[in-house]
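TASK: fixed-backbone design
INPUT:
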């Protein structure tokens, strides 16, 4: 955790903006769930897939989780923007 704090402090100095921690609990699990709409199904890992397909599926899950973390942060802090 000390390295994270050091990185946070250095990043704040560099960008001259506050860096806020955001809870990311269960975002990967939420990212695996299907969205409402025409989406077929969420990316899943399978023993039948090639390692390359698994890697791409993990990248999609990580990207979706990152978007959820950002969305949660923006939703909580929207009053700061107005």
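OUTPUT:
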């Amino acid at each position: 955790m000390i390295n994270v704090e050091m990185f946070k402090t250095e990043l704040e100095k560099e960008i001259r903006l506050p860096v806020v921690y955001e809870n990311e609990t269960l975002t990967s699990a939420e990212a695996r769930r299907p969205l409402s709409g025409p989406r077929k199904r969420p990316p899943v890992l399978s023993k039948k897939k090639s390692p390359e397909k698994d890697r791409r599926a993990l990248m999609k899950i990580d990207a979706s989780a990152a978007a959820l973390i950002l969305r949660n942060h923006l939703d909580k802090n929207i009053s700061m923007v107005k």
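COMMENT: The two ends are 33 Å apart (CA to CA).
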